[in-house]
Amino acid sequence: MVLTERHGSVTILTLNNPAQYNALAGSLLGELNHALDAAIADAAVRAIVLTGAGKGFCAGAQLGGGNTFEAGEQIGDNMRATINPVIEKMRGSPKPIVVAVNGPAAGQASALRWPATS
Asked: Whole-angstrom Cα distance, residue 110 to residue 95?
């Protein structure tokens, strides 16, 4: 679900579920988390590029249909428990992460805890 390529000191992570517009769910989210861990821990990697396969970058959280995020009272908690750690890992990465958006991109902003700005 996540392809990893190395080009010199750059690791390219490609979300690879184009049939679902690379929606964040189950195995794709887990593989992205592990691929980020590996790239961040690799001393030879100086930058990470994140992109998506197919016509869209990422459709956001995959909702309904027996997927990770079903409607109901727990949906927010579930998203915070699964998506937030990956977002926080990217935000706190000691290496720059460049996102190559190749088409539609949607987000799950309500699950994020951005710091207040003044």
From this structure: 25
Contact of 17 with 51, CB cutoff 8 Å: no
Say how many domains are in the chain: 1
Q: In angstroms, rounded to a whole number, what is the distance separating the alpha carbons of residues 18 and 15?
A: 8
Predicted TM-score (pTM) of this structure: 0.83
**Coil, strand or helix: which one is 31?**
helix
Q: What is the spatial distance between Cα 103 and Cα 75, in angstroms, rounded to a whole number?
A: 26
Q: 113 in a domain, yes or no?
A: no
CATH of the domain at 9: 3.90.226.10
Rg (CA), the chain: 14
* Distance from C-alpha of 24 to C-alpha of 10, rounded to nearest angstrom: 23
Per the model's pLDDT, the better-predicted residue between 106 and 47 turns out to be: 47
